[in-house]
Structures are given as C-alpha cells and as structure tokens.
Amino acid sequence: MSEILTAGTVWGVLLTIAAYGLGAYISRKTGHPMCNPLLLGTIAVIIVLTVCGIPYTEYKQGASIVSWALLPATVSLAVPLYEKLDLLKKNLAAVLTGIITGVITSLAVILGLSVLFHLSKSQAVTLLPKSVTTAIGMDVSASLGGMPALTGAAIAVTGIAGNLSAEFVCRLLKITDPVAKGIGIGTASHAIGTSRAMEMGETEGAMSGLSIAAAGIITALLAPLAAGFLH
C-alpha cells in the first residue's frame, strides 16, 4: 500500500488537499469551533501515514510544494492591509509597540519555560519562533540549531490554539478595539489565527495580516539574542 500511494510525485499534495477538504467539510457541517479544518486535516494525514506505514520524510517530499506556496499566500495578506492603509498610519505607533511587545513576550515565555522544564538549548530554540509563520519560523529554528520539523508542529499547534481561542480571549479581557484585536491575534498566532481575525472583521484581518510579516521579521532579529541566554 505504501509503495502504491507514494509512486507519484504529487501524492503528498493530493493527500494534503483531500485531508483539508475533509476537515473543512466537517467544520461546515458541525459549526463547532473545535472542528478546525487544519486540526482535522492534520489528524487525517497522521492517520493515513500511520495506517499505510508511510514515513514522514516521504510525505514531506511529496507535499513540499504546499510549503512553498506559504510564501506567496502570506504576501497576499497585504491586500486587505492596503485597503486599511489610512487606519494603519493613524495608529502606527500603537501598532508597532503592540507587535514588538508581543514578540518579546513570546520569546520571554519560551525562555522561562525552558528554565522551568530544564529544556536543552536545542529544544528551546526549536520553540522560540512558535508564533511566526512556518516559512520564517522553520528557517529561524534551523539557523539556531533547533529542529525545524518540530518547530513546524509547534507553529501549527500555536496557530490552531489562537484560532480557537481568539474570540474568547478578546471577550474575557474586554478587548473591543478592532486594531488591538488584529494585532494581538496576528502576533500570537500568525496566519492560522489571521483566518479567524478575518472572520471577525475587515480591520481585524488587515491588522492581523500586517502582524504576521512584522512579527516574523522582529522574531528573526531577536531570536538569536534570546538564544544567547540559553546554556
């Protein structure tokens, strides 16, 4: 079965699309926030690989085009931001302060957890870029001596958690400003969280899209400094 499924070069892409499609279908039918298409799709892929005895490395090779597509997909988020350019200019100082604070907080939390749970330096730097998009986070992890594959998993879990909890957290903390919502969601949970921000409103989606790029750049600059505190 494994040889049959992996005979072609695009089987990984087809499996990824089919798994996500199944997740999206279940999400629409149930309407439950826990039925996130990405979460369900990930589970479906894991089940198929396990049942069919297909190594992850073979799946990764077959689905590599999906990872490549993340870059232009992320850039496309600049379109809603352009439509809210005046709002960005008006709140530029607050926006930059929010993103920088969010990135520093994320890095500090990982440093704290690494001490609390006695993580090795390799394990800690693997988790440092957990809140940025995969295209940036995995490269940052690799450059610092981390494990990119595990970083990708941490990024996915972080994004799904943000997607599921974004609205609840905003209500709990009484965050009502659309700009603040978008910046918080995008900085904490990258593109997956941004998909929820776009459902919340145009302004939330635009600000969240901006945060993905800005947080990615700032994380790439600050992560090596944070790694310097690790032993």
Question: Can you describe what's shown?
Answer:
- Helix content is 81%, strand content 0%.
- The chain has 231 residues and is mostly helical.
- The chain folds into 2 domains: 61 residues, no CATH class; 150 residues, no CATH class.
Topology:
Blueprint: H1 2-5, H2 11-30, H3 37-52, H4 56-62, H5 64-75, H6 78-83, H7 85-90, H8 92-116, H9 121-127, H10 134-143, H11 148-172, H12 178-200, H13 202-227
Helix pairs in contact: 2-3, 8-9, 8-12, 8-13, 10-11, 11-12, 12-13
List keywords for this structure.
globular; mainly alpha; 231 residues; single chain
Summarize it.
The protein has two domains: 61 residues, no CATH class; 150 residues, no CATH class.
Low-confidence stretches: none
Overall radius of gyration: 18 Å
* Main sheet properties: none
Could you estimate the helical fraction of the residues in percent? over 70%
Count every beta strand, where a strand is a DSSP E run of 2 or more residues: 0
| SSE string | HHHHHHHHHHHHH
The global form is globular
Query: How big a fraction of the residues is strand?
Result: under 5%
Structural class given helices, strands, pairing?
A: mainly alpha
**Count of helical regions:** 13
